Amino acid sequence: MQFTQQTLENVTADLLIVGVSEHQANLSEWNTFTEVFGEQTNTWLKSDDIAVGLKKRTKLPTTLTRVPRILYVGLGNRKHLTPEELRQAFGLVGKEIQQLRLSNFAIWIDSFVTDDITTEDVASIAMEGIVMGHYKMDHYRTSENIPAIYLEEVKFISHAEDVVIRAALEVGEIYGQAVNEARRLVNLPGNILTAPLLADYAKGIAATYDFEIEILTKTELEELGMGAILAVNKGSQEEPRLITMKYQPREEWTNVTAFVGKGVTFDTGGYSLKTKTGIVGMKGDMGGAAAVLGAMRIIGELRPNHNVMAIIGATDNMISGSAFKPDDVITTYSGKTVEILNTDAEGRLVLADAVAYAKQQGASSIIDLATLTGGVITALGYDKTGALTNDEAFYQEFLAATEETNEFTWLMPLTKNDLQRVRKSDIADLNNSPGGDGHMIFGGGFIREFVGDTPWIHLDIAGTSDANAAHDLGPKGGTGVMVRSLATYIMRQTEQEIDI
């Protein structure tokens, strides 16, 4: 996308986006705006023909051919405006740009600045929100033949330094596009996005950003003894893959943060079969993998000075004569044995081998992400990600990143009693499903058994990975949750290391 700085006096665009709020006439440069676009704007504000309420939008024509339309975006009381409210407002702007089918527009950046939200912040938030709001889900209809419209050029108006605003706009665009890519992956049907094709997608990312990549095939997983992911894959005609990407900007492969994603491309539940309604939507059971891949795109673009590893266990969970079944006992990559009580508790099995491999590959800390349990939805609803950890300081650092991105995360308890129930089996070291009560905790607690003393955070995104309805920042479907938080955590680590 091309970014060009202009002024109110010479701006040329199909649409100009302007922030308006209570007491708008007090805004710096407002007189210049009315001189260029007409004094009637003040009259329209006083008569409420231009709405200033938070996230309200008013589109009006102008008499200037170089800017035929202005979209006024309401900010409410500017003193109380939060970054997330501003991001959502720009998400709605992105939707409007999509509906208007525009490839270029202009933003008066300074009209959105507040005492607490700087010009640079506005630029980054604006592009992040607009790009996310502009996203449209791919479809396979044969009756619709409307070509896609891509955002090509953004003109910005600001008194701030050109290079600073341009850089902030670029960061916002990178974040937004990475989220949209993760959404696209989650929305792809299971017959189109298989485990081998997910691995091919990862290869493309690695090639683009010069990451080291390793793709383990079924034969190699058998040689390594990764019995957990192989058990989940037993009923499938599609081979599994274990994907490892490494980004190493430092000389030594130390202080490595590992992102580990569940990549179950479709989950029937296996012989513990899901209901006819519960099975619909299980193409999105690889939301953890999508989040990891989205975060790696941001890392590849911004090149932070921090070692990062991404590991994805990819397979589907199907039913056949060879599928694993309740009462089976399997041996994991770590050597621990597991009694299978529920074949629909498959994600934790995939992650068990993946986190153990992350440790073997030098992870200093691990964040695993998975659409793991319906229990997290029962406990926290659809708007909160559930978390577990074995290291409070590590979690607090990550929590700061989620607060910056406004991806709400809530820490759940993991007690000795919970772990004892995971370890309860007459014939194996562990069982994979101690019960329906505390299901989210047991799911993460099972993964905890393969982490050891490595600092670890588990994120259950079963409720937040997919939206049941359209929202300010996007349509129904995949949300790309945690893409921004993972990347922001790494960027914050880089800033801390520079400060030291």
Describe the 3D structure:
The chain is built from 15 helices and 19 strands. The protein has 500 residues and is α/β, with parallel strands linked by helices. Helix 9 (287-302) links the parallel strand 9 (257-267) and strand 10. Helix 6 runs parallel beside helix 9 (287-302). The protein is elongated and about 80 Å long.
Alpha plus pi helix count = 15
The count of β-strands is: 19
Give the CA-based shape: elongated
For the biggest sheet, the summary is:
8 strands, mixed
Q: Poorly predicted ranges (pLDDT <50, ≥5 residues)?
A: none
Mean pLDDT: 96
* Helical content class: 25-40%
| Beta-strand fraction estimate | 15-25%
Radius of gyration, rounded? 24 Å
Q: What structural class results from the helix and strand content?
A: alpha/beta
Q: In which order are the strands of the major sheet placed?
A: 7-8-10-9-13-17-14-15
Distance between the termini: 35 Å
Features:
single chain; 500 residues; alpha/beta; eight-stranded mixed sheet; six-stranded mixed sheet; 15 helices; 38% helix; elongated
Reconstruct the topology from this structure.
Elements lengths: L1 E5 L9 E5 L9 H8 L2 H7 L10 E5 L7 E6 L8 H18 L3 E5 L10 H16 L18 E5 L4 H26 L7 H15 L2 E5 L1 H7 L2 H7 L7 E7 L9 E11 L19 H16 L5 E10 L11 E3 L5 E3 L7 H14 L4 E6 L4 H6 L4 E5 L2 H14 L3 E3 L4 H7 L7 E2 L7 H10 L7 E5 L5 E2 L9 E2 L4 H17 L1
Parallel strand pairs: 1-6, 2-4, 2-5, 5-6, 9-10, 9-13, 12-16, 13-17, 14-15
Antiparallel strand pairs: 3-4, 7-8, 8-10, 11-12, 14-17, 18-19
Helix pairs in contact: 3-4, 4-5, 5-9, 6-9, 8-10, 9-15, 10-14, 12-15, 13-14
